[in-house]
Design a protein that fits this description.
single chain; 440 residues; alpha+beta; eight-stranded antiparallel β-sheet; 39% helix; 23% strand; binds zinc ion
Amino acid sequence: MMEDNIYYMKFTVTPTKENQEYNNMKEATAFLWIKIIDKESALNIAFLHFKKYDFLIKESLVEPSIVNKEDFITKAKGLEMFEVAEKEGIAIYYVAVAKHKDVPSDEIRLNSSVDFNLSEHILEGKKFSNEGRCLHYKADDRCDEIIKAHSIQNKGLLSKIARKGKVYSVSDSIGDMIKNNDSIILKEIGINKFSIFKGFCKKHDNELFEPIDNNLVVTTDIKQIFLYSYRILCKEIFIQEVALKQWENVEAYKNLFRDSTEQKEVYNRMNYHKKIYDDVLKNKYYEDIRYISFNSNEALSIVFSSVFSPDYDFNANYLDNENQDLLSFSSAPTKDGWSFIFSWHKSSDKSCLKFIESLIKRGERDDNLGDLLFRFLMKSCENTAFSPIFWESLELSEQNEISKVITNILHPSIAIPRDYLQKDLSGISKWNFKTKNHNL
Ligand SMILES: [Zn+2]
């Protein structure tokens, strides 16, 4: 793993309207020392901190830069802060300017170092994920045996890449990551623990997903492809439901983000898509599902499944996806190897078609399709398991590059840059796709 450094940065900040505590303050200079894996993550932590304490960043005075103890040897306060950061991961010091000249600066003094224990907040919120319910469209009182459902099937898929029943994964390690000063750890975990959620009863899980749990995928079988999407959409709904409960009930979340409006919107939008998918299932409208599969005859190295709303295509064009069209993607085992499958419902055609067209065009034009898809996957999906053989075969620098990308996507506060699918992670996956199938 990459070594942590101490990043130093400096901002001018102003209190927001909601900030009651420091309403005498005109602005402040904030000095931050953060022990972390890289510059982007240091910035994310700073943004989250300011958000939590209701400050807006007015100006960045010093970009995050790596510092050593020697840099502060002549500055007592700086040295003190450096040492706090070394021990506690973060140290912050404010110099404030009062709004009115007659307010003594004592009255607007801020705490110089702040308790920033995100991992505790996450633990507090975790209890909500233990309350399960069946998400099958026919769910009723009889769904009494809620199981730990897998969002990715164990037998046919995870076991294919596992070594002694284990895979490398990031999805369960957010707690470790926070403990490790917010840099990601990829850990070997048992496949029985990977990507589970309490979103189905035993009967419905068995009945519904039988066609994909016990069979290889035929990349022209639209029902199989639909079931992959349905399963991961249900997992996403479950996660959003838990998040909403957390935001509405856990004190720390309320403090951090103030209100849950945004979370409610995300949840409502997911539910809107879920209803459409329920309808497809109920009425067997499988022909309303679009898909494209990229087929490889090599061994599967990474297993994944996720849903998302595309904002930018593969050429960095804005998609104006105001309806939050939903695209899902999964790895699926096939007779010859495996496939990277995208699918969506026709009601999400507008953005999804553009997104897929840009992928195909770039793949044909100048880029290696394997690199494009790998980059997309690493930047879009937490629900990923790496084959230990593949992960350990990577150079340390390649592992670090992947960890860095994943650390960034796990931070909620940073906006996706429009060119995020243009660069990074080339030549790592060695993925090779020989053919494709689609119904577009
Ligand atoms: Zn059920």
